[in-house]
Design brief:
Chains A, B: GO terms for molecular function: DNA-binding transcription factor activity; transcription cis-regulatory region binding. The structure is a homodimer of 250-residue chains. By secondary structure, chain A is mainly α. Chain A folds into 2 domains: 75 residues, Arc Repressor Mutant, subunit A; 107 residues, Orthogonal Bundle (Tetracycline Repressor, domain 2), CATH 1.10.357. Chain A is 58% helix and 0% strand. Chain A is built from 11 helices and no strands. The longest helix of chain A is centred in the middle third of the chain and has 24 residues. Chain A is flat. At the A-B interface, helix 1, helix 4, helix 6, helix 7 and helix 8 of A face helix 1, helix 4, helix 6, helix 7 and helix 8 of B. The structure holds a DNA duplex (30 and 30 nucleotides).
Chain lengths: 250, 250
DNA sequence: CAATAACTGTGTACGTCATACACTATAAGT
DNA sequence: ACTTATAGTGTATGACGTACACAGTTATTG
């Protein structure tokens, strides 16, 4: 039997309840909440152990009774910063997954610092797994097998993540500053300025025709919806294939 | 006109050539190469300014003549760690994009530390843009408009990224250790152990039926190919639609 | 009721890291 | 020969993560 990594165990409240000693003034939830507030306000860079401790009115070392180290804290943050998934109120699988993916992306836009954590962590907390569960549930009625469902969700997750990254990186998400590029328009200009049409024929042609000039629409639904439909069309095609002649996968 | 952020400028060799002073012993390429070697060997955590400097036989502060700060260095690394994209040797758009996406994922599997950087950075370096260019080029013959092409590539990139993350996170990629979970099987066990069937009906059912038990296949092509085809089917459907009745987008 | 054991939060200390600043050495232009 | 811009160095600083020993607190045990 595999042992639960300590933080994961605590995320699920599977830690033995202490029977002796002073009543704890903190708990994992409070610590995480404080850390998230800081991240929202100042970005991940502002989240230091002392900053979190200060906000809780506590010495930095106190936190180590609840998290093994800072990485642990980040993992827990990455889970509890995620709100519950949308409710499947009698929607078709397609409508639900569309809403699901958009909500997914919106979370990442609202908390860009999640981008720096999620890219590295498998979903193992209650929230992220609830999202996973709901998406799989939406596919429950379809003739896809488990692996296919799982991969479908993976693809959707990836799309949400990449879209959010793009929006955030080009600055259209609102925040700018930081390391340089601040806005899709400027991004386009920079590319146009630098691209050698010979080495980058297609891209530079696109840039001169002003693709990214008007691309504050990255945040708008139009572009996002397009890619989303792309994926869902693929799923739908597969489902139709499976429905017509029912045979095993592969 | 937008100014080039200094690092980006240097990535493209657009820096004024120095006319006086001692001959430089370093250049951005050498620094980046050293940093990448360290990242490959010890992970991103091993990449400190002093570590890189030591490897180059130079004082840490010397690096700051070439990069403004450490984040700059990471940005440059994220670009130059990427090899040239596969060659479109008379392939159909579909075959090429399939190869392209798989190659994309393989890079991320070979250098997992890229996952921690790419999630945050827009592609602005020569390598990443070359990849973008080739993918767009592959779609050149299709009736999709520029925005649609761009979004298609975004979706594919996202899929590669998420797949790689999943493989790497569940440990099937080879490396383990670090923060806990080490291997898809163990991951599955942990989930099975922790999931309340009432709160996670679908997911826990899948787990008990052993979905992740046999999922060392995540690295295998089977699962990856499935999701990829999902996407490409979507693209193909769109192309067919566009080809039949040719009207503007939206 | 006293003694013990388990637990919480603190204070201090250390090693690492990114980076600012002042300096020396070097080579090109005058 | 002299000036001047540049390259790499040495030293210093402040922030950060975290190890460790301790003091205070509470439930359990005798």
């Amino acid at each position: 039997m595999a042992q639960l990594p300590p933080v994961v165990a605590r995320m699920w409240g599977r830690e033995p309840v202490p029977r002796r000693g002073p009543r704890p003034r903190l708990d994992l939830a409070a610590i995480t909440a404080a850390a998230i507030e800081i991240a929202d306000a100042e970005g991940l860079a502002g989240v230091s152990m002392s900053a979190v401790a200060t906000r809780l009115g506590v010495a930095p070392m106190a936190l180590y009774r609840y998290v093994g180290n800072k990485d642990d804290l980040l993992i827990v943050m990455a889970d509890s910063a995620v709100p519950p998934p949308p409710d499947p109120g009698g929607l078709t699988w397609r409508d639900y997954l569309a809403a699901w993916t958009r909500a997914n992306r919106d979370i990442l836009l609202a908390r860009p610092w999640l981008l720096s954590i999620q890219g590295d962590t498998p979903p193992a907390g209650p929230q992220r797994l609830r999202w996973l569960d709901r998406a799989l549930q939406a596919l429950g009625e379809t003739p896809l097998d488990d692996g296919e469902k799982f991969n479908t969700v993976t693809a959707l997750t990836g799309y949400a993540l990449t879209s959010a990254t793009l929006v955030h990186a080009t600055g259209a998400g609102g925040r700018e500053g930081e390391a340089g590029i601040a806005g899709a328009a400027e991004y386009g200009e920079i590319l146009a300025e630098v691209l050698d049409p010979q080495a980058y024929p297609t891209l530079s042609a696109m840039m001169s025709s002003g693709l990214l000039g008007r691309s504050e629409d990255w945040v708008e639904d139009a572009d996002f919806t397009f890619g989303l439909d792309l994926l869902l069309d693929g799923v739908e095609a597969l489902i139709r294939r499976r429905t017509r002649r029912r045979h095993d996968r592969k």
